[in-house]
Specification:
Elements (H helix, E strand, L loop, with lengths): L13 E8 L5 H16 L4 E9 L2 E11 L2 H9 L1 H7 L2 H4 L8 E5 L4
Length: 110
């Protein structure tokens, strides 16, 4: 039997997928920066899960799979100092700089 996802019991959660690719030679530095975001984020109000992944076929591509209780909780998360500080480093780490961070907000339908 499959393991239920966070949205199995609450279809009103806001699911977020954040995808980014490290500049050549910056993969390990970006990974370390992203790993440092996990603990403080998990302590925030409204976070259900905040899971960091790396692409199996491309160690430069990272994805956060997140669920939030509401859009307001996500907005508060994005304004937190650890996220604002990280956002200031996007140009030095990401292909495409700040535009290389692609954030998609999703609502589960089935």
């Amino acid at each position: 039997m499959p393991t239920p996802t966070p949205t199995e019991n609450d279809r009103n959660l806001l699911t977020v997928v954040a995808r980014m690719t490290a500049l050549p030679g910056k993969e390990q530095q970006l990974r370390a920066e992203l790993e440092q975001l996990v603990e403080p984020t998990l302590a925030e109000d409204g976070v259900v899960n905040y899971d960091l992944h790396v692409a199996v076929d491309d160690p430069a591509t990272f994805v956060f799979y997140e669920n939030w209780q509401s859009p307001g909780h996500l907005e508060a998360h994005l304004a937190n100092s650890h996220l604002v500080e990280f956002a200031g480093k996007l140009d030095e780490y990401l292909v495409g700089g700040a535009d290389g961070l692609v954030i998609t907000q999703l609502q589960r339908i089935k």
